[in-house]
Amino acid sequence: MRVRMTGLAGVIAIAALLVGAAPASAAPGDASAYGARLNVTLLGNPAVNAEPFAAANANGPTQNTFAGVDLTGILKTGVINASASRDEKSGGVYSRASTADVRVDLLSKVTGKISAELVEAECQATQKGLAGKSKLAGVNLGKLGQVNADPAANTKLDVQLAGVKIAEVIFNEQIKNNDGSLTVNAIHIKLLQGVLGSIGTGDVIISSATCGPAGLPIPMASGAGLWIGLGLLGVAAAPVAFVALRRRASLNVA
């Protein structure tokens, strides 16, 4: 059996195939940032859990500011700014967090006070890929050592007490997450539970930015793009449909 299809029917069939075959629109890429987050338990003291300060997200709020953190014996900061944005046309996302006048007292009994005038983290995702970086200004690490103003990814300094590692400080920490996104923590302090010399457990993160992967640009075969595409297809196919119908009419007359 042969199936005859006029040009108009062909247009409808092609349109149906486009609608059925086109993948669902990919959700645009996401991005987020915050200035500081703490979850630590010091020996002999109750746990300290502080939610992300000045959290921002590409879905809103896209910008946030916090006057400053003041947790005695752990962390003190000045103004925190965070932002996250999405380019709807390209699918690219960007996030940034900056924390001013940072002072970390958490390890002061071992390293002396750690301070910085400014701690920044940035993350960007485009169709070409993901990239992140951290920037430090006016850093004083006490006895811990030195670090560049633009530290290499995952630069780590160990904190030891009586020859036992009790903590580590990671600068420009870059983590590739399972969902394909990238997290950049400008400073991440990890307290390690040890047999000897432990002062507590937990984490302190200062200036964090997460982004990506980039979402796809608005596809042609969805939303307004679908109707525009089908309209152009119909215009192109109209002459074919007219000729096919005219030919059929002529055959019927004969």
Can you characterise this structure?
It contains three helices and 14 strands. It has about 250 residues and is of the alpha+beta class. Strands 1, 2, 3, 11, 12, 13 and 14 form a seven-stranded antiparallel beta sheet that branches. Strands 4, 5, 6, 7, 8, 9 and 10 form a seven-stranded antiparallel beta sheet that branches. The protein is elongated and about 60 Å long.
Q: Nutshell version of this structure?
A:
With 254 residues, this protein is of the alpha+beta class. Helix content is 20%, strand content 44%.
Can you lay out the helices and strands and say which pair or pack?
Blueprint: H1 7-21, E1 31-42, E2 48-53, E3 56-57, E4 63-66, E5 70-71, E6 75-76, E7 80-86, E8 93-104, H2 108-111, E9 114-126, E10 129-137, E11 155-161, E12 164-176, E13 182-191, E14 200-211, H3 223-253
Antiparallel strand pairs: 1-2, 1-3, 1-14, 4-7, 5-6, 6-8, 7-8, 8-9, 9-10, 11-12, 12-13, 13-14
